[in-house]
Each structure stands twice: as structure tokens, then as C-alpha cells.
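Appendix B, example 12.
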Amino acid sequence: MTNIGSQNITPLQWYKGVVGDIWSGFGLSGKVNLKTWWRDREDISLLQKLSRFISEVLLVEFSSERLFIFIDEIDNILSLDFSVDDFFALIRYCYNQRAIDPAYERITFAMFGVATPTDLIQNKKSTPFNIGKSIELRGFTLDESLCLARGLNLSTVEYSQAVLQEILKWTGGQPFLTQKICHLVATEEGRGGEGVEGERVQNPFNTQFPMPHAQCPMPNAQTLISDIVESRIIERWESQDEPLHLRTIRDRILNNQVIAASLLGLYQQIISGKDVLADDSKEKLDLLLSGLVISDRGKLKVKNPIYQRIFNLKWVAKQVDNLRPYYQKINTWIASGQQDKSLLLTGETLQRAIAWLENKQYSDMDYRFITASQAEANKEIERDLNTEKVDKQQAKFALQAANEASRILAQARRLAQRNTFHIRLGKRWIIGITVSISCLIILLRCTGLLQQLEWNTLDRFIQNRPSVIDSRVVIITIDEPDLQQIGQYPIPDQVLAETLKKLKSYNPRNVGLDLYRDLPVNPGYDELMQIFETTPNLIGIEKFVGSKVAPSPVLDKLGQVGLADQVLDADGKVRRALLAVGSAKTKIRYSLSLRLALNYLKSEGITPQPQKNNPYHIQLGKTVLIPFQSNNGGYVNADTGGYQILLNYHGTIQNFDNFSITQLLNDRIPPQAIQNRVVLIGSTAQSINDLFQTPYSTNLFGFPQQMAGVTINANIVSQIISAALEGKPMLRVWWEPIEWLWILLWCGIGAVLSWRWKSIKIVVAAIIIAAGGLVGVCYLLFNFGWWIPVIPPILGLVIAAISLPILTNRQLAKIQLRQIVELLVMETFEQPAAAQIAIEYLKQGESEENQALIQEIIFNVYLDR
């Protein structure tokens, strides 16, 4: 179950993982196509798929053998975010089917893990997991573990068995501890000893160098094991517990705060020597599952002396102290000599402590603390009763004064609000807010925090713009049905040679072979090389960036090779096209798509010409190729290695004429579909994994759709040819200062809108309309080839619209507060008590800053008076 996982996993992934593990475990990969089988049953539930897999595949493919399915780490399912009660109900169903279908008698499930049957089906309304039988695991006996004695490397068999018997006394036969102590005995560092005259004797038990008994007497087995257990297991046990064992037991008891106290209380009774009967209560089962105790003749006892020494009463008391809800208070109370009454518990805290102490064994000091708290609580009740009468009289007078004060304060608020309603502030702050917010947004954009949002917006624009169909580019695909019909991958050279012959007969303008051909794939290698040598309009591929893949030697010699490398953004998507790579030390290598496009345009009389003012800007027919810069568009400090351009996608594979290689080989493609066009041959099969995420990939509904590398190359070829011949726009960006002014403009619009209207509803509606207009303008410009910022202006629009009212309302609030205080001060001359209470009420609802302002206003009013 840990192989399938339990974190961030969906029910589909989990059930498919279970079926996939069973499928691979029984070696069905050559008999059943799991992907096809699963897809053919999309209309049934996940549980039904698992059930059908058992009945339709396992019991059919293995018609006579017995089948065993081992499910390990079943406790891993308890941390799943969804219920798998139905999974275990299906296992119970398979068991019950034995009475109806004899075939189910051949299948057996065995489950391993730290869990009880009640943990497996947790829905109380469902039938519990009450089938099968449990196998109780007990510790090693002496007879079962004699084989370990041979590995101790001691002097005699009798002495080895005596040492092993002493080990079992300490471990109770617990497998891990038994083997760990055996290992300590068998290694040199676990066995040092003293010679007869006190001289240290190195490796006294090494059988390769036996020593006389007179010079190195053998330690008593009991003494030897006792010393090792004390020094290597018990002392500083937490630091010596490698690999983890004792700390795992500790964590199983303490990690769950809900039941830790109950488990410790129960274990405290066991280790104190009280008889605790073994039954099916949850606390006792959880304690048994921790491995700390065992059931012996119907009673619980500590599993072995090592556990008893480590997890002793002192350890239990310390853990209980840490769990007590009043741990800090009682310790401080004891330190005060039991005199500090402020530390005693009161009210609901006291009641929770009393309930928590119930059925637990604690010290006399705990009960003194609780008793003192109860006594103090009773005294507090008596004092409250004695003062209740006085409080009633005072409350009556205070209520009258408070009511009048509330009336005076409410009246002052209404008058001040009416006086400040028509005051308009903020016009002088519009420029300041606009500049400040725009600088903040530009700084935020420079950090790269908005990069992903701008990429996502670009992706949405690409997905939703009108489709472009380019008839000049044709794709010959190699998909899963083609591979199944051909029978192997890589495709044999003979098949590829026949494909290229067919294409040549159709007279294409250029052919791009988006398949690596650095090694022979017989049969047909010589024939394919001859085709390569006699096809001047054929371009092959190589991988140059990162892990390299060499080109075909023949095509490389002819100079008919292009790069197949793609540039991935940080989110794994392809939004840029790598056209060339090179430096002063290496020759320039052009990409497959650029070579195909340039060859096509050359036949149209168009060749690339560097511009005089900037040799990196390439004039190509009606367009100019401008290299990608690190901060173009929504990018921040992007890698600009090689010669890159922004990829202006024309569409998915549906936007190009595409045929399968099988259709080509079977003469099912009309010649006019190929003639005088650019043809790309490449794989679209999932199994070959020449797939990339692009702006068309979205993971809103399941796994994101990927695009084959051959389709990306077709988009690049189409983009360059269309721009050069027809002037269709490449994807361009604004100069950065213009983008900053664009952001500044929309920050100003947000500030003006929020200043123009006071109504929140109107402002919100205006902001929504403005944001919609902004997106519409950006989308319209995108269709003309301009990628301009969308997210930064929207943020500036919204933040500026929010910030201006906050600042102006703060100023209005101060003006209104000043008028309220002046009215209340004037009222003190008429009703001193009620007006002073009203002023105090006003202070209580204000911040410390406003309280200081109120005092200042009062002082100034009295001074003027």
C-alpha cells in the first residue's frame, strides 16, 4: 500500500494503482492490455472495475491455479483522504462468493499491518470485516532460533546456546531485538573483555585466533548479555535506537493525543502488577498493536524485560506529567509552597481537570491541588452571593446613566455623520496613489511572482482565439495503432525507407524526419541510407542541448540535420521556439523547423537578411525575426540561450492536415495532399513519450493534454512561413517602459473610479467593467500579434480602487471623530455624569492612537472655552 501512496492521491489513482500492481504481480503484461481494458470500462465505477478484473481477468487467465494476493502495510489506508470501506467489502464479497461460484475458492487474500478488523470498515452502518482468520505472531523460541547461535562466532556450541538463551530472556523472543543483540555479541565492539591480569584483550571470541582459557576466561553468559543490554540498548536508549524500534513503540503510544492518556493509564496498571484482562476494548487493542505488551493466558503483560526497563513507571509518570492539562500550574503551585492561590483552577477549567483525572492513577499532590482548587471555588461562590445585593443597587444607577450616555453618544454620531456626508476628499491623492501602486506592481512583477499568472493568461488567449488552418504543412503521425501493426519500435529501417519512397513519389517541397536515426534498426539499414543520400530535401534531427543524441551519419555528412530540442518554461510548458544554437567556438546549428521553413521560403525566392542597425534582427520576407529577451512579455530573467522566438501557436494537430504512416504505406493518401508541401514525420504515440505540455494543456479536468514534438515543430514552421509570405504577425511585446506606462494608466483608472463614486456597489461594478474592457483590449491586441501585460494592470486597477477609499475614509473618520468629541464636551456642561460616560464609551471603541487624539481634542475644546 505504501507503493501506491496515501497523500495527494485520488480514488481513481488509488484503485488504478491496486489493479496495476495485481496486473504486474501476476505477469499479465503480455496477455492483457491494461490501458485498453480500463478504458473499455469507463462507464462503471472504480470498485466494479476491480471486481471485474478479478472475475474476468484473474480467474479466467489462471483457470486452475490457486491465487494469493498479499496486501502489506494495510494501516497505510487509514491516512487516505477518502473512504475505502468498499475495497474491504469487495474482499468480503469474494469470500462469500465461494458458496456460489467455486472459482472464488481459488483466490485468497492475506493482509499484513498494524490495524484491527474494525479499522478496515469504519462505517458503523456497514457489515464489519468479520471474515477470514487471524495469524498471531509470537516471539522466537529457543528451538526456533538455534540457527542464530551459529552466527555468534563463540568458542563452543554450548556457550553459544547459553548466550542465545540469555538473549531470549531479555527480548522475550522479539525478532528485531533478538537479532540486534545477536549482532552486538557477534561484532567486536559488542564484546570487549579483560585478560587475567587486567590487560585489555582484543577480540577474545574471534574463532580465527583462539586463545587459551587461562589467558582469556569466557565471561558468564548472563553477565555478558546483561552488560550489552545495559550499555547498548537501555542506557541513552533514544540515541542508540538505530535502526528505529523503541522510538516507534513510544510514538505509537504518544502521537495520538486523544488516546495517549488512556493508553498510559492502562499501561501504568499493567507495569504496577495489577491484573488487566485482555479483551476487545479499543484501548487494549491499541496497546497490543503498539507491540509493548502481549496477551498471556487472558491477561496483559509487558512483552519483555527490555521494554519493562525502558518504559518503566518513571517514564510513564513523566509522560503523564506532559499530558496533564494543568501541568505548569501545579508545578508552580508546588514551588510556591502550595500558597499561591492565583494558580488554582477555577470554573470550566477545574471541571475539565476533574473529568480528566477520573479513572487515572495520580500522586497525592494532584489530589491536593484539585481539592484546594475546589475549596477556593466554593469561597468565591460565597463572596459572590454576599456582594450580589450591593451590586444590584449599583447596577440600577449605572444602568440609568449608561442608557443616557448611549443616547447622547448615538445622537452625537448622527450629527457628525450628517455633517461629514458631503465632504469629498482624495482628489489630491489620486496621482500619489496611482504612482505608488504602479511602482509596487512593477516591483512585484520584477520579482517573478506574477510570471505564472501572465503565462496562464497567455495560454487562455491562445486557446480561445480563432483557429488557423495552414494547408502548407502536413503531418505524418506514428500512433499506437501504427506501432501495433508494424510490431516494433524503433520502426525498422525498411519500413522507414518504404515511407520515404512513398513520400518522394508524391513530390513534397520538404520532408522533416522527426525521428532519431543515429543507430541502425535492421532490416533495411542500407536501403534507408541510400534513400537519405538521394533525397536532398530531407532534413533529419539531432539533440544538442543537455543529453545529446547524435544525428544520422549520412544526413550529418550531407548537412541535412536540424535540432529537435524544445525550450521548457518553469511550469514545463513550451511557449518559445529554439531556432538556432551556436557560439564563436562551435558552428551554428539550426532547428528542424527553421531549416524546413527556410528551404520552403528559398523556393519562393525569400532568404534571410540581417538588418543593418541590428544584425540579430533577421528580415525574412514580410516579417522580421526578433530574438527573445529575458524579460519579454510576462517573463522575468528567463534563459535566452541560443536564438529563440516567442511561439505563436496556430493550433493543435487538428489544425493541420495529418495522416497516419499506415495510411501512407497503404496508399490511402491523395497525392495532392502531399505535393509541394512541407511534410513532417513524427511520433504521437503515448508510449514513445515525445510529448510536451503547451498552452493548450490544462489540468482543470484530469491529466493535462500533451502535444507531440512533431506538432510543435509544425506550428513553428507554419508560424515562420505564414509571417514571411503573408505578413501574419509574429508574437511581439512592448518595450518595457511602455508596459510600465500601461500599468500606470490602469492604476490611475482604478483610483479615479473609486473617487468618482461613493457607492461600493457602483465602484465594484465599474471595476468589473473596466477589468473586462482591459482583458478585451489585451485579447484584441493579441489577435494582432501583441502580447501585453494583463495581470499587473488588473492588480493595479483593483488595488488602487481599494486603497484610495481606505485613505480617504480614514481622514473622514478623523474629521467625524473630532466633531463627535466636540459635541460630547459641550454636553458635559448640561449632563456631566452621562456625558463623561459617553466619552468613555467612545474611547473604548477606538484604537490607542484615536484615544490620544480624543484627549487632545478635549484639551483644545476646554482651552478655547
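Confidence is low (pLDDT under 50) at residues 189-215. Residues 364-420 form the longest helix (57 residues).
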